[in-house]
Amino acid sequence: QLTDLLQQYATAFRDPMMLQPPEWFKAFIYCEAFLQLPFFPVAAYAFLKGGCRWIRTPAIIYSTHVATTLFAILAHILFHDFSRSEHAGPETLRERLVLLSIYLPYLLIPLLLLFTMLCNPHYKHVEKRKRK
């Protein structure tokens, strides 16, 4: 079952945020459900169709939001005292780095998207529609 899989993940990678998420982490989960997930089909359409320069602004908003949330999550993983957590958290630097490596792609991919939207000449200038 999914709950067993979640328990196995949390135990194997010492990720107590998945079993007992702090309030700020719950807020990020709601943002993901209601802001980030609806973005995926829109972005998939734009990138698969190609030539859709209108995706630039939504992609910048999306990638900036995700990167901001991930900075908070990564800082929590690196610096939080998990000794008082109900569920086992990372104790050693190695355990923290392993957990960090699981979350890191969720930061790197939005940063690559942001870099693409800001630096790729195709997305730099959006053509304005001509009035008839």
UniProtKB/TrEMBL annotation:
Report the principal subcellular site. endoplasmic reticulum
UniProt entry tagged with the keyword Membrane: yes
One matching Pfam family: EBP
All residue ranges annotated as the EXPERA domain in the record:
1-114
Residue intervals passing through the bilayer: 27-48, 60-79, 99-123
Membrane topology summary: Multi-pass membrane protein
A cellular component term from Gene Ontology for this protein is: rough endoplasmic reticulum membrane
Location in the cell:
Rough endoplasmic reticulum membrane
Keywords recorded for this protein, A-Z: Endoplasmic reticulum, Membrane, Transmembrane, Transmembrane helix
Q: Which PROSITE patterns match?
A: EXPERA
* InterPro entries, alphabetized: EXPERA, Sigma-2_receptor-like, Sigma2_recept
Q: Which family does it belong to?
A: Belongs to the TMEM97/sigma-2 receptor family.
Tell me the PANTHER family matching this sequence: SIGMA INTRACELLULAR RECEPTOR 2
Return the protein name.
Sigma intracellular receptor 2
Q: What organism does the record attribute this protein to?
A: Polioptila caerulea
The beginning of the lineage is:
Eukaryota, Metazoa, Chordata, Craniata, Vertebrata
Gene behind the chain:
Tmem97
